[in-house]
Backbone:
C-alpha cells in the first residue's frame, strides 16, 4: 500500500478501536487482525497495549501491518515517545517540491496564532485538524483556545471525547476514561483542561459507525444537535483528525467530509485549518514540506501570506482555508520502537531482538510550548529496576486516573530524560505494565 493510499484510509483505520467487533468482521479483516482488535481492547493500560502490539505486528499480513503500525505509533505518542511515533509510522502525503509552491519573493511568513485569530474574528465555525500519532499537531489548538475564547467563541468540540463523562465540566479535567486512547496523550488532555478552564462548553461528537461516509455525517449531526440546534448564534471551535475538516470531497475520495455536512446542516461557512497535508518526515525527505521549511525557516507555527493581496496560502482552497507549517521538532535519536519482529517477556525488554540500543534523552523542542513549560529531569531510578516503566506527572490536585500533564515510557534501564511542565505542584508516579505503583514523588516546578 502506498503512503498516498494509506493517507486516504487513515480516518477509517484510526477509528476502529471504537467500532464494534461485529463491524470489524464485516470489513473483512483477517482472523489475526480481528483477534488483534479484540485483544487490544482487553489490555489494562497504555503500556500493556504497547507491549501487546510489539508482539502482534509480526503475525499480520503485509497488507494489514500498516494498520497495526499506525495504532502502535499512536500508542507511542500516548506514552510520550514522540520521536519514535513519527519514525515508526511516517505517514505523510509525499508531494514533490515543484515550482507551484510559495516562495519568499511572493509570500511572507506570519505567526499562525496571530493570523488565524484575525481571520476568524467574525467567524462562527472554526475547525482544525491533527495527525493522531503526532502530538505536535495539537500545540496550535492549545495556543488558539484563549485567543478564540477572547473573541467570543463559546463551544469547543474534541473528537477524542466520548459521551460517558457527565462530570467532566464540574471536575475541570479529563480522566483517561473520558475519551478514546488518543486523549491519554498529555497535550490532548491539556487541550481539554484548558478549554474547560477558559469557560468553553466542551462537547463530544464522534460516532461509532462502520462506514466512513456514515461517520462523517454522524459527526456533523452530533455537532448540529449539541450546539447549533439549540443555540443558533453559537461560535464553535472543533478539533478533529485529518480530512474531517474538509469542506469538499477529495481527501476521502468520493465521501463528503464532516465539515461539508455541517455546512449543509447549519448554513454556516466553516473556516478550516490544515496541519496534516504538509508535515515533518522522519527520516527527513526531499519534498514540499522540506522545501518550504528551507525557504521560510519557521521557529514557531506559521502561515504564508501573499505579499501582493494579503491572502493566506492554502494548497487546496476548496478543501480548507489555510495550511499551517510546523517547525521541525529538532528530534534527537529515538529510544524505542518497532524495527523488526520481536519479543518482550517477563516484564523486561529483549533489546537484542527489538529495540535500538542507543538511549537518547532529548525529546522534541516543541514540548516547551514556546517557553511556557520547563524541563524536569527524571530517570529510571523511579522504576525500581522494573522495565518497561512509565513515569506520569499529575497536577497535585488531580487523581491518578487523570490524563497526565506529561509522561514518558522508559524502555531501557539506566536511562534519563526530561518531562516538560508548567510552574506548579505535581505528583510523579512510576508504574509498570500491571499498573502497579513503583514510586511516587511530590515536586514543585518554579517559574524561570
Residues:
Amino acid at each position: 500500500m502506498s503512503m498516498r493510499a494509506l493517507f486516504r484510509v487513515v480516518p477509517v483505520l484510526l477509528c476502529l478501536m471504537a467500532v464494534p467487533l461485529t463491524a470489524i468482521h464485516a470489513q473483512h479483516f483477517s482472523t489475526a487482525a480481528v483477534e488483534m482488535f479484540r485483544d487490544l481492547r482487553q489490555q489494562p493500560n497504555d503500556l500493556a497495549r504497547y507491549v501487546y502490539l510489539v508482539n502482534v505486528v509480526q503475525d499480520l499480513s503485509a497488507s494489514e501491518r500498516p494498520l497495526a503500525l499506525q495504532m502502535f505509533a499512536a500508542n507511542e505518542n500516548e506514552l510520550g515517545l514522540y520521536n519514535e511515533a513519527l519514525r515508526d509510522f511516517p505517514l505523510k502525503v509525499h508531494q514533490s517540491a515543484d515550482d507551484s509552491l510559495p516562495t519568499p519573493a511572493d509570500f511572507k511568513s506570519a505567526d499562525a496564532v496571530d493570523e488565524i485569530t484575525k481571520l476568524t474574528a467574525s467567524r462562527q465555525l472554526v475547525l482544525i485538524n491533527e495527525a493522531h500519532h503526532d502530538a505536535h499537531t495539537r500545540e496550535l489548538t492549545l495556543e488558539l483556545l484563549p485567543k478564540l475564547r477572547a473573541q467570543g467563541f463559546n463551544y469547543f468540540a474534541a473528537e477524542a471525547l466520548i459521551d460517558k463523562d457527565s462530570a467532566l465540566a464540574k471536575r475541570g479535567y479529563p480522566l483517561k476514561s473520558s475519551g478514546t486512547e488518543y486523549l491519554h496523550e498529555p497535550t490532548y488532555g491539556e487541550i481539554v483542561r484548558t478549554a474547560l478552564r477558559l469557560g468553553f462548553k466542551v462537547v463530544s461528537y464522534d460516532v461509532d459507525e462502520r462506514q466512513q461516509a456514515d461517520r462523517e455525517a454522524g459527526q456533523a449531526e452530533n455537532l448540529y444537535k449539541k450546539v447549533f440546534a439549540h443555540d443558533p448564534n453559537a461560535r464553535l471551535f472543533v478539533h478533529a483528525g485529518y480530512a474531517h475538516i474538509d469542506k469538499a470531497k477529495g481527501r476521502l475520495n468520493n465521501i463528503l467530509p464532516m465539515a461539508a455536512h455541517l455546512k449543509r446542516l447549519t448554513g454556516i461557512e466553516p473556516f478550516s485549518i490544515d496541519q496534516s497535508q504538509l508535515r515533518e518526515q522522519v527520516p527527513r525527505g526531499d519534498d514540499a514540506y522540506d522545501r518550504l521549511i528551507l525557504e521560510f525557516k519557521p521557529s514557531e507555527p506559521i502561515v504564508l501570506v501573499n505579499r501582493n493581496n494579503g491572502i493566506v496560502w492554502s494548497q487546496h482552497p476548496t478543501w480548507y482555508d489555510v495550511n499551517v507549517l510546523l517547525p521541525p521538532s529538532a528530534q534527537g535519536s529515538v529510544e524505542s520502537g518497532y524495527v523488526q519482529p520481536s519479543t518482550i517477556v517477563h516484564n523486561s525488554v529483549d533489546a537484542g531482538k527489538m529495540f535500538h540500543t542507543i538511549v537518547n534523552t532529548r525529546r522534541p523542542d516543541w514540548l516547551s510550548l514556546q517557553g511556557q513549560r520547563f524541563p524536569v529531569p527524571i530517570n529510571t531510578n523511579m522504576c525500581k529496576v522494573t522495565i518497561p516503566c512509565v513515569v506520569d506527572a499529575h497536577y497535585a490536585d488531580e487523581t491518578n486516573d487523570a490524563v497526565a500533564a506529561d509522561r514518558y515510557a522508559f524502555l531501557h534501564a539506566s536511562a534519563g530524560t526530561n518531562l516538560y511542565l508548567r510552574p506548579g505542584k505535581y505528583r510523579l508516579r512510576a508504574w509498570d505494565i500491571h499498573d502497579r505503583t513503583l514510586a511516587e514523588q511530590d515536586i514543585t516546578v518554579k517559574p524561570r
Remarks:
- Residues 212-228 form the longest helix (17 residues).
- Residues 77 and 133 are 6 Å apart (CA to CA).
- Residues 107-323 form a domain with the Rossmann fold fold (CATH 3.40.50).
- The radius of gyration is 21 Å.
